[in-house]
Amino acid sequence: MNTPPSFTTDALIAEDIDAYLHRHQHKSLLRFITCGSVDDGKSTLIGRLLYDSKMIFEDQLAALENDSKRHGTQGEEIDFALLVDGLAAEREQGITIDVAYRFFTTEKRKFIVADTPGHEQYTRNMVTGASTADLAVILVDARKGVLQQTRRHSWLVHLLGIRHVVLAVNKMDLVGYDRATFDAIVADYRAFAEAIGIADFTAIPISGFKGDNITAAPSASTPWYDGPALIAHLEGVEVDNAAAQTQSFRMPVQWVNRPNLDFRGFAGLIASGTVRVGDPVRIVPSGKTSTVSRIVTFDGDIEEAVAGQSVTLALADEVDCSRGDVIAAAGDPPQASDQFRATFVWMDEEALKPGRGYWLKLGTQTVTATIQAPEYEIDVNSREHLAAKTLGLNSIGVAEFATDRPITFEPYDTNRQLGGFILIDKFTNATVAAGMIAFSLRRADNIHWQPTAITRADHAGMKNQTPRVLWFTGLSGSGKSTIANAVEQQLHLMNRHTFLLDGDNVRHGLNRDLGFTEADRIENIRRVGEVAKLMADAGLIVLTAFISPFRAERQMVREMLPEGEFIEIFVDTPLSVAEARDVKGLYKKARSGQLKNFTGIDSPYEPPEHPEIRVNTVDMTPEQAARYIIEQIMPLK
Ligand SMILES: Nc1ncnc2c1ncn2[C@@H]1O[C@H](COP(=O)(O)OS(=O)(=O)O)[C@@H](OP(=O)(O)O)[C@H]1O
Ligand SMILES: Nc1ncnc2c1ncn2[C@@H]1O[C@H](COP(=O)(O)OP(=O)(O)O)[C@@H](O)[C@H]1O
């Protein structure tokens, strides 16, 4: 029989508070998640863990006893599920809908458990809970065995890099503690686990409700079971950074610590490996090398530090290194690339927009990333690959990513911290996806930025002007082309070197493969932005006349250019006026349903919030509007 683990008692708090706190501070921490369906008894199990570890305060306990009598499903006994299903809304629905983090502790270890919902739609919450966990407890109802949901959760757990899995076969009391039932479920799960690459798992027959094999094993009802109790297993499982410590040294720089002129250090959390004073290191992506001269911590200098420690490194040489860089073992640095392939989970109500720029955060790095249309979506139930043009809420897919500057990373399989990222919508600031990098694309490794001898300043200087991009935006028929034409003519008369890129014309050549879906419009503007940038690099004053209906893409082009070079001109013509003009008869077609996705009718237009210039074509003639614009942009030099 395994020795039952001893939970912390409150006695020590009263006797010697310092000893109590010291003991708690120096215990290791295990983060784990529980996955299971609403009825698998997950909340009851967590409630029991909290209850048995005495981490519930007295008043909460009293409330629990009251609540159990009122709402509980367990008669006069305490309903542990109520402890966990804290939210009123959840109680009403009878399901757990968000990730709840609970803390408890035993004599040997501290625990943070993320309770993730089992409900079909909530992949997002599950991913959130799993992203920081070292272990997953997958609950199965002994009466039902391995279900679709068990398989889905197990696959996600594996995908997210959790390498320790406990299969908790719950409600054994309801199957008469039958060994054959338990063995059959374990055999069934083993076959599945092997197929998806879960190398090993620990199966434990339990009853969260009755308490069997939770704190002591074997329980009197399962004399045939010779494994550990759940708590003993959680206390003993080796998840300290053993693996991370054997890998090569990497530390993403969080900030540069410069308290005075004599000291400059780079602070961060060591993601993997070991670093010693005197070690040669390389800074990625710059590639500069140096040697560690000091390792400074809160408690003074140390000779050696390992994965999981927060330290400040001082280097022997004055090298450029700032937030977002990674300091790594000189002989085995991680890669830096601006194109890679990744698996990602979409977590926003609004679907992925291929081609749009999102903030990508990886460790301490933040860059702009654009995502191509997914190569495929993965059916989380069957793991089949499905064709997909985008990803919606809770979908998982694989796609190629491109970033505006190289980021330093490692494949997620090797290093969760340097391979995992999130995507953030630039306008709403919502976290819209979580992803795992698979590998850098070879084409990114083989394409290098070629420095040219004649710079953009040389080009502009030769033309004796400052490059600009005059970006006209507005509804179809608002007057973009007419006014842009008039502006170009006037600039031409002033001996400026200009070029006008017009929507209709570009769509006949460079962009003739694009239509008017959201994704095509995003790609249209991306390409036009790139061309406008090249022309500005050549020293030209570029005028563009595209509807460019989305703020995000206009912002993307703005960010591609040096500050002040992008001038957004909003041709602010009301829809009714543009429609009345109907130069090309397109509004008529759109209204009659012959033309789909027409801007302003059944496709959105997002007006600029802070355009540099706004022209009102109701009050101004095209010539007046053009003159007004010229006045605004003068002196152009
Ligand atoms: N569905 C639909 N919606 C909007 N516009 C349509 C559509 N179908 C064809 N056209 C014609 O294409 C011109 C707009 O192309 P753009 O490249 O400026 O559009 S976008 O910026 O990609 O949204 C636009 O030209 P302008 O009238 O000069 O704006 C239209 O003539
Ligand atoms: N004040 C004005 N500014 C611009 N265009 C005007 C104005 N008043 C009338 N128009 C007419 O509106 C139409 C605008 O068409 P166009 O310039 O092709 O718009 P867009 O390029 O935005 O689709 C033209 O026929 C133009 O003569």
UniProtKB/TrEMBL annotation:
<keyword id="KW-0597">Phosphoprotein</keyword>
<keyword id="KW-0418">Kinase</keyword>
<dbReference type="InterPro" id="IPR002891">
    <property type="entry name" value="APS"/>
</dbReference>
<dbReference type="InterPro" id="IPR011779">
    <property type="entry name" value="SO4_adenylTrfase_lsu"/>
</dbReference>
<keyword id="KW-0511">Multifunctional enzyme</keyword>
<dbReference type="InterPro" id="IPR050100">
    <property type="entry name" value="TRAFAC_GTPase_members"/>
</dbReference>
<keyword id="KW-0808">Transferase</keyword>
<keyword id="KW-0548">Nucleotidyltransferase</keyword>
<feature type="domain" description="Tr-type G">
    <location>
        <begin position="27"/>
        <end position="242"/>
    </location>
</feature>
<dbReference type="GO" id="GO:0004781">
    <property type="term" value="F:sulfate adenylyltransferase (ATP) activity"/>
</dbReference>
<dbReference type="InterPro" id="IPR004161">
    <property type="entry name" value="EFTu-like_2"/>
</dbReference>
<dbReference type="InterPro" id="IPR059117">
    <property type="entry name" value="APS_kinase_dom"/>
</dbReference>
<feature type="binding site">
    <location>
        <begin position="36"/>
        <end position="43"/>
    </location>
    <ligand>
        <name>GTP</name>
    </ligand>
</feature>
<keyword id="KW-0067">ATP-binding</keyword>
<comment type="function">
    <text>Proposed to provide activated sulfate for transfer to Nod factor. ATP sulfurylase may be the GTPase, regulating ATP sulfurylase activity.</text>
</comment>
<protein>
    <recommendedName>
        <fullName>Multifunctional fusion protein</fullName>
        <ecNumber>2.7.7.4</ecNumber>
        <ecNumber>2.7.1.25</ecNumber>
    </recommendedName>
</protein>
<comment type="function">
    <text>APS kinase catalyzes the synthesis of activated sulfate.</text>
</comment>
<dbReference type="InterPro" id="IPR027417">
    <property type="entry name" value="P-loop_NTPase"/>
</dbReference>
<dbReference type="InterPro" id="IPR009000">
    <property type="entry name" value="Transl_B-barrel_sf"/>
</dbReference>
<dbReference type="InterPro" id="IPR044138">
    <property type="entry name" value="CysN_II"/>
</dbReference>
<dbReference type="InterPro" id="IPR009001">
    <property type="entry name" value="Transl_elong_EF1A/Init_IF2_C"/>
</dbReference>
<comment type="similarity">
    <text>Belongs to the TRAFAC class translation factor GTPase superfamily. Classic translation factor GTPase family. CysN/NodQ subfamily.</text>
</comment>
<comment type="pathway">
    <text>Sulfur metabolism; hydrogen sulfide biosynthesis; sulfite from sulfate: step 2/3.</text>
</comment>
<feature type="binding site">
    <location>
        <begin position="115"/>
        <end position="119"/>
    </location>
    <ligand>
        <name>GTP</name>
    </ligand>
</feature>
<comment type="subunit">
    <text>Sulfate-activating enzymes, NodP and NodQ, may be physically associated.</text>
</comment>
<dbReference type="Pfam" id="PF00009">
    <property type="entry name" value="GTP_EFTU"/>
</dbReference>
<feature type="binding site">
    <location>
        <begin position="474"/>
        <end position="481"/>
    </location>
    <ligand>
        <name>ATP</name>
    </ligand>
</feature>
<dbReference type="InterPro" id="IPR044139">
    <property type="entry name" value="CysN_NoDQ_III"/>
</dbReference>
<feature type="binding site">
    <location>
        <begin position="170"/>
        <end position="173"/>
    </location>
    <ligand>
        <name>GTP</name>
    </ligand>
</feature>
<dbReference type="Pfam" id="PF22594">
    <property type="entry name" value="GTP-eEF1A_C"/>
</dbReference>
<keyword id="KW-0547">Nucleotide-binding</keyword>
<dbReference type="InterPro" id="IPR031157">
    <property type="entry name" value="G_TR_CS"/>
</dbReference>
<keyword id="KW-0342">GTP-binding</keyword>
<dbReference type="InterPro" id="IPR054696">
    <property type="entry name" value="GTP-eEF1A_C"/>
</dbReference>
<dbReference type="InterPro" id="IPR041757">
    <property type="entry name" value="CysN_GTP-bd"/>
</dbReference>
<dbReference type="Pfam" id="PF01583">
    <property type="entry name" value="APS_kinase"/>
</dbReference>
<comment type="pathway">
    <text>Sulfur metabolism; hydrogen sulfide biosynthesis; sulfite from sulfate: step 1/3.</text>
</comment>
<comment type="similarity">
    <text>In the C-terminal section; belongs to the APS kinase family.</text>
</comment>
<dbReference type="InterPro" id="IPR005225">
    <property type="entry name" value="Small_GTP-bd"/>
</dbReference>
<dbReference type="Pfam" id="PF03144">
    <property type="entry name" value="GTP_EFTU_D2"/>
</dbReference>
<dbReference type="InterPro" id="IPR000795">
    <property type="entry name" value="T_Tr_GTP-bd_dom"/>
</dbReference>
<comment type="subunit">
    <text>Heterodimer composed of CysD, the smaller subunit, and CysN.</text>
</comment>
